[in-house]
Amino acid sequence: MAISTGASPHTLRGGLDSLNSGHHQLALRFFLFIVVAHWAEHLVQAYQIYVMGWPIPEARGVLGIPFPWLVTSEWMHYGYALVMMVGLFLLRPGFTGRSGTWWKASLGIQVWHHLEHLLLLVQVLAGANLLGKAAPTSLVQLIMPRVELHLFYNTLVTIPMVVAMYLHTRANRQDNATARCACAPKD
Fold first, then answer.
1. Transmembrane stretches, by residue range (predicted)?
2. Rounded to 5 degrees, what angle do the CA atoms 66, 72, 73 make?
3. Cα–Cα distance list, 86 to 10, 16, 65, 89, 108 (Å)
4. Burial class (CB within 10 angstroms; exposed 0-12, middle 13-18, buried 19+) of 163
């Protein structure tokens, strides 16, 4: 028995085409806001720890101060990593040439970041931590502390994404000639 989503493949394809053509610029701006806001949270958390001298459990960024569960919820972290990966994947067809290469690099890094968060979430759900650690632990976290690691991951994803967007929105770039959106002025 097939389960219907209510949308035909043609409708879904049309929505993806629209997202990467007529609505690409708006979608990129919205996505960039989400990514930079999240990255800023990690930067504030690092500032709270290394400049203000706060203990790690108290350094929760800006939103984590009034909503501490945002920092401690593996579901929230996994959800964000998934949204980030899906956003990078869905917006990928709108990029061409060098900007496409940078966007794909960002997506590749985010796929790994997502897998690390999936590993953390599975540990929480299973009630058993990697190598008997006291808290859920990702693979790279075995050699690098969690706060620094996630700031590093988010930086690694954000930088090539911003480079891709910069290249994608520059006027008269030859590799933007095949772009189907209006992100780069043609004159």
1. 75-91, 111-131, 151-167
2. 105
3. 20, 12, 28, 5, 12
4. middle
Task: Write down the H helix ranges in the chain.
Answer: 9-19, 24-50, 69-72, 74-91, 97-126, 146-168
Q: Residue type for 89, please?
A: F
- What are the residue ranges spanned by the domains of the chain? 68-173
Q: What phi, psi does 125 have (nearest 5°)?
A: -65, -35
Q: Among all chains, which residue has been given the structure tokens 């994608």?
A: 168
Residue 86 φ/ψ region, left for φ over 0, alpha for ψ in the -120 to 50 degree band, beta for the rest: alpha
Rounded Cα distance between 43 and 132, Å, is 30
Query: What digits encode the pLDDT tens for the residues 81-127?
Result: 999 999 999 999 999 999 999 999 999 999 999 999 999 999 999 99
DSSP helix/strand/coil, 64: coil
